[in-house]
Amino acid sequence: MALIVQKYGGTSVGDVDRIRNVAERVIRYRQQGHDMVVVLSAMSGETNRLIALAKAVNPEPDLRELDMLLNTGEQTTIALLAMMLKSKGCDALSFTGAQVQILTDNAHGKARILNITGERIRSEMAQGRVIVVAGFQGVDAQGNLTTLGRGGSDTTAVALAAALGADECQIYTDVDGVYTTDPRVVPEARRLDRITFEEMLEMASLGSKVLQIRSVEFAGKYNVPLRVLSSFEEGEGTLITYEEDGVEEPLISGIAFNRDEAKVTVSGVPDQPGIASQILGPVSAANIEVDMIVQNIGEDGTTDLTFTVHRNDHDKVMGIVNAVAKTINAKDVKGDRKIVKISLVGVGMRSHAGIASKMFRVLAEEGINIRMISTSEIKISVVVDEKYLELGVRALHTAFELDEGVNIN
Ligand code: ADP
Ligand code: ASP
Ligand code: MG
C-alpha cells in the first residue's frame, strides 16, 4: 500500500466520458489499497477561454481578478470527478487550492508555492477518502487567490507529493511519456523509459511543455519519484530519475524547441564599458526576461549586441531599446519575431567533444543559417529562422540517431 498522487491534464478531463475514465483508474488504485490524491487541470481549452473572456473586458485585465476567474476552471473538473467517484461508491472530497492551504507568494499569474500544510488532506485521507485537488491554484497570505503559471497543475501535483511524502507522483497526459522530441512535430520521436531530472529540466526550460519547469525543479529538490504516462492507454511511461553511477547515459536524450522567441539587435554601439548594462538594464527593469545574449567583438570602435526575449515582449522591448539607442548613439535597432530556438539536450554530452560541430554541420547541410549559439555542459542551443523549425528538428533527430527503431543503447 502506497500514497500516490496522480495528476490529469486538460485533455484527460476534457469531457464527462474522460472524467469517467479517470474515476475508473482512481478506483482501481484505491481497490489495490493505495491512498490517493488526485490533482486536476481545467478541461482542455477552458483556461484559454477564460483568458479570452477577461481580455474582452480589458486587453490587460487586472491580474488579481484574472486569477479569481482562472481559479474557476479547475473548480469545475474537481467537483465533477468527486461526484463521479461518489456515484460509483468511492468516498471522495474535492478541494480548491485555497481550501487545502496551498500558500503562495502574491505574484498573480506566476505565483510560487511557499508552503503546504497538508493537514486537512491527511485527516480526510485517514478516513479512507480520495482527495481531489484543483491544480494550478493557490492562495496568498492575504487570502487572495493566485495561479502558478500555465501548465501549473504539474507543479501542484509534485508539490503535494513532496509535502505528503508520496511514494510516486504520476502525471497523466495525452502522450504516453516523454519523447526524444515533441511527437507532434516529429512522428519518428521515440519514448524514453527514463530521463534524468537535469535533462528534463533543460528540456522543459528550452520549450518542451510536457512538464512545467517548476514541477521538475520541485521533484529534483525534494526527491519525488515522478512518472509521465498516458491517461488513454496502459504503459510504463517515462520515469524521471537521478543520474546513476555506472549507467551510461545517452549522448543526446532529446531535442527541445521554442517558438516563443524574438530577437533584438542593436548595432553600431560604441564599444566601451557599461554599454551592455545601459541597454539591458532598462529591459530587466521593465521585468522582461532576456534569454540569449551575444556581443560581437568591436572593430572600428563600435560593436553589435543581440539578445532574445519572449515573443510577447518583442514590441515592448523595441520601444525601450529604441529610446536607449538614441542616448548612447547606437546606429540601428532591428527586431525579428520570426525566429525559433532548437536545443540538443543530454548529460552524456559532458564527456564528449564534437557534438556542437556535428550539429552545425547537419544544419548547414540543410541550408539552415544559424543566427545565434549558446552552450552549457548538457545542452547546445541555436537560434534559426522560424521557417526552418521542423526541418532542423527532424534533420537533427535523424542525424543523432534518435529516430524510432534505431537502438542506441
Ligand atoms: P496536459 O494538458 O496533460 O498537461 P500538455 O499539453 O501540457 O498536456 O503536455 C503534453 C504535450 O506536450 C504533448 O501533447 C506534446 O505535444 C507536448 N510535448 C512537447 N515536447 C514533448 C516531449 N519531448 N515528449 C512528449 N511530449 C512533448
Ligand atoms: N489549466 C491550466 C493551464 O491551462 C493549468 C494546467 O493545465 O496545468 O495552463
Ligand atoms: Mg501541461
Question: What can you see in these coordinates?
Answer:
The structure is a single chain. The chain has 409 residues and is of the alpha/beta class. The chain has helices spanning 16-31, 46-57, 63-87, 119-126, 153-164, 197-205, 213-222, 275-285, 314-327, 355-365, 389-399; strands at 3-8, 35-40, 92-95, 102-104, 113-116, 130-134, 137-139, 145-147, 168-173, 194-196, 226-230, 238-241, 254-258, 261-270, 290-295, 302-310, 332-336, 339-345, 372-376, 379-385. Helix 1 crosses helix 3, helix 5 (153-164) packs parallel to helix 7 (213-222) and helix 8 packs antiparallel against helix 9. The model has no long low-confidence stretch (mean pLDDT 94). The protein has 2 domains: 3-174, 3-Layer(aba) Sandwich (Carbamate kinase), CATH 3.40.1160; 255-399, VC0802-like, CATH 3.30.2130. Helix content is 34%, strand content 26%. A hairpin with an 8-residue loop joins strand 4 (102-104) and strand 5 (113-116). It has 11 helices and 20 strands. The protein has an 8-stranded mixed β-sheet with strand order 3-6-2-1-9-11-12-10, with helices on both faces. It has a 4-stranded antiparallel β-sheet with strand order 13-18-20-19, with helices on both faces. A 4-stranded antiparallel β-sheet has the order 15-16-14-17, covered by helices on one side. The longest helix has 25 residues, at 63-87. Magnesium ion binds at residues 9, 151, 154.
